[in-house]
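In the previous chapter we treated chains in isolation. Here, by contrast, the input contains two separate entities that must be folded as one system, with a combined length of 807 residues.
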Amino acid sequence: MLTNVLIAGVGGQGIILLSDVLGNAAIRSGLGVRGSETHGMAQRGGSVVAHIRIGNARSPLIPKGRADYLVALEPLEALRYLDYLAEHCIAVVSTTPIPPASTHGKVAGYPSVKAILDELSEYAEVYPIDALALAKRAGSVLTGNLVMLGALSALRGFPLEQEVLKESIASRVPPKTIDMNLTAFKLGRKAVKG
Amino acid sequence: MAKLDIAINEPGRRVFLLGNLAIARGALEAGVRVASAYPGTPSSEILDAIAGVAPKRGIHAEWSTNEKVALEVAIGASYAGARAMAAMKHVGVNVALDALATLAYTGVNAGLVLVSADDPGMHSSQNEQDNRLLARFAKIPCLEPYDAQSAKDYTKAAFELSEKFQTPVMLRTTTRVSHAKGDVTLGELPDYEKQKPRFVKDARRYVCVPAHSRALHPVLNRKLAQLEEYASESELNHMHLEGEKGIVVAGVARNYVREAIESLGVKVSLLELGFTHPLPRELMRRFLSSVSEVLVVEELEPFLEEQIRAMQSDVVVRGKDLLPREGEFTPELVEEAIARFLGVEHSPPPRRRAKLELPPRPPVLCPGCSHRALFYALKKVTRRKIYAGDIGCYTLGALEPLKAMDTCLCMGAGVSQAQGFYHAGIDEDVVAIIGDSTFLHAGMPALLNAAYNSADILVIILDNRTTAMTGHQPHPGVGVTATGSETRPVDFIALAKALGAEYVAKVKPNDFEETVRVLEEALSRRGLRVVIAEEPCALLGRKLGLWKTPPRVTRGRCEGYLCSACRACLRIGCPAVGWEGGKAKIIEELCTGCGLCVSVCPNEAIVGGEEEC
């Protein structure tokens, strides 16, 4: 049993925290886990991707065509890794664009979010999430990553139990922010479950 | 974020660790007493982690001024009987090479491990050299872990090997080991007891004058022969015989090979090497005697492949004819090569390209980064100029729209290259741009050289009060050590003067007009000039509470007149300055309130957040 999760976004959105929470939860669940992430130069507002593989993986990188789930913290970033998506891939996508500085003032700039979601839908079952609004409701725009984790946890077939994920969140975020982050997580779950 | 305590003493517990943290944990389990490093991706987290627990474990952990110093500190500790580790990125080993190249002659006393974190694919580096070649050059053993668990276990093994053979050992990782994560089963931490260091004087061993070194070299060569025998028996290598065709593999690619064998459903003989220098020749001979054709799977240089070929067996050796010699490997690349090697059917995943055009998102200088202000001011005051750059966040100033960097080679090179440009007789103004940590690392001898040899250049030291690119490590200019204790900060003005600068000035880049004025003055003079641009890194500024209210574009009052869409504000390349409906728009979530866009707007259409509109 192996579950491959690809997390895409922009440097600074809290992707490393998500991979930590997932890895920690996998261990709490008695499962093996491996992953790989971007540090250093690539974090300065650039495209960032993390691979997390829950179960019996050897490689820290997901082979192309085998990502079971895609978590995109930014819409444009959701389209950069189409090669990685498995036929049955399910994607949760934050619908708030962060236009790269290179598009500022350009006519052919950032594509429309609808066009992005339409194209992604050709390759995956897509759940658009208004993560920014839900994060604000949870108490801080900085909890957008936890909203997306909540959404991921509610997807069909996702192997980690929500209670274990909550324990893992509580062990990984600053103590003062635990409640806020758990609220963000719950709001994300609800956005998928309805 | 709540950090995992890497010093928990719960043997058998499984934890989720970054490869570099696993190395730090391995060093703790091995009882390391002195740990030194200079930050560099992908190695930095090793010392970050050790420093975090150093005081309570009785360890001395330090950020050294450069990699050579780091290694030499570790060497002294090892001579004195304390287990020591020096960690650095691959190109850092070049800086330390002067010490390393002779270290094997003297050997070590207590275990000494040199961590070389290589960066195939150059995620954050200027080259992708393969440091196994340096282990061979320096005549020291090389161990190559392949995941987080082995990163911890091999670190411990490296200390034991080092002590057993009285040799420094290179632990060579790559980005996909150092920055990969995995579940790691913890071992036991040794009881902390203050050992009494003891140095047994032995001039014929520790004083490398020619007469001594001539005697030491044959001893070293005999030691290497013994190590080669030992490597063949090492538990870090695994051989599995199954079939006529075989694969030899080392490093992270071991994982890709295992998964490919499973995915292709093939049977193949496999030799997985964790101990790669000296080559375990006897083991290799046994392996080659049972196969007819072998594929060597190793990233970057054909290090093992060429040595296997040199053994002149009858076996056909494949490797770089099926796999690239540059970049990092991926699972699918290795699967494809194995399928071709074995001649089996293989269906690669379909290649997909988004039909929408995706604008690229390269790394950029952060919103509020004072380097941006300095570069913009510099471009404003210099017309004909050459910018000799250096290594750090500010290298991003080379990109559009600032384009304020013409060279970037290695740590400290800009200050010396600028002198070469000047002595070559170039007409343009020559400006060297170097960061604070980089200047203290390798820029000081270069500045002294400029003074000594009368180079007429301007050197700008970008002092953002930290080593920013690698994760905000302190340096000697900051006044704080790796473990957080206070220390005497070096004064850049006094330092520049002492090194011979004739003109020294200090500016705050976010005070844009004053910066322009000082740069104009510096450029109008001749001789060796130094300008220190001091402003804390914007990311630190957030923690220090230095962020200000974002400015406003005064649409209501000024619409259509002041903001005449000249787009000057876009030319600073700030991610927080967007464009909407034909006018500038401040993206408040990203803005730090530095005010550069306010300064550059020619029509005063952007007003500082704290000013009345």
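Chain B has 21 helices and 23 strands. Residues 211 and 242 of chain B are 52 Å apart (CA to CA). Compare these points with the single-chain example from earlier in the chapter.
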